[in-house]
Write a structure and sequence with these properties.
Radius of gyration: 21 Å
Strand content: 15-25%
CATH architecture of the largest domain: 3-Layer(aba) Sandwich
Structural class: alpha/beta
Number of domains: 2
Order of helices and strands: EHHEHEHEEEEEEEHHHEEHEEH
Low-confidence stretches: none
Mean pLDDT: 97
CATH class of the largest domain: Alpha Beta
CATH topology of the largest domain: Aspartate Aminotransferase, domain 2
Strand order of the largest sheet: 2-10-9-8-5-3-4
Helix content: 25-40%
CATH superfamily of the largest domain: Type I PLP-dependent aspartate aminotransferase-like (Major domain)
Distance between the termini: 27 Å
Length: 358
Amino acid sequence: MKKHNFSAGPAILPASVLEEAAQAVRDFNGIGLSILEISHRSPAFSAVLAEAEELVRELLGLSDDFGVIWLTGGASTQFFMAPMNLLDDDKMAAYADTGSWSAKAIKEARNFGTVEVVASSKPQNYSYIPKGYDVPANAQYLHLTSNNTIFGTQYHKWPETNVPLVADMSSDMFSRPVDMSRFGLIYAGAQKNLGPAGVTLVIVRKDMLGRVSRKLPSMLDYRIHLENGSTYNTPPVFPIYVSMLTMRWIKAQGGLQGIARHNEAKARPLYEEIDANPMFRGVAEKEDRSLMNVTFVMAPGKEDLAPAFLQDARDAGCVDVKGHRSVGGFRASIYNAMTPESIGALVEVMREFAGKHA
């Protein structure tokens, strides 16, 4: 039976990327060595790093004002590494609290300076994206979590402010065009939408760096990694390689404009089914619904049927539809590589379930 992978991460990757990566594990580009065993300073891998950066720049339209870095530690390390590099002890940064990951970023940033939470949807269980709030003009930056995997909300418009934006884009990186003129820094763990777990992409505007007075450990200083082309220490070779292959695939889909059309089209029938099916109810406010993580629950009075629905989904090959342990319900993660066929399989399970139980 075909498996339809709705995992929130590590997540689905394009089939062609998996095939090429598998070949490279056996023999990378015909050199007689695996991608897993070549030197990170070899010409073969230097070419991978160069192409990976070139693709990042091409897809986002990056100018030379921005640096591209590949790091380890996931987005969770960036929760403290970003303020460590950008926020001085006597300065202030603004943060929007839209979910569990932004709350963790706020907690870490408070170790390095003053944090002002300028907006929060926590009182409504993070079911929407706050809008219309003021950002202090003296803030060093405004931190956002662009897509909230647990609660299924996503920014579809960036806040109006002259303050540079810093964003955790782990779960919607390269899923749509981004106006980089608004951003001072973007970071993204690859395992949601770009590649396998183990590498984090950081894009930073160079003039944001070197402003803090604190002494930075070399491994936590963005400038050191930029100066050394992401090879100050041994980088995660294989995850960078697979991320490069994924970006090639995105480019072949028509770039970020093409992938955005694909993501909008494939999310539509799933949300339409949630709204029409008497057995289910959406969680996120409609205007803020995520195109990456679709969250829903049983309709009122039907809660005891949740285990039966999950079993029906598994029986149909739809795996990892269960919601995050902190909120329950259901979550279908439908990243770039998700196919309309898999969306159709889940929609069919939902319709058949309603036919049996409505």
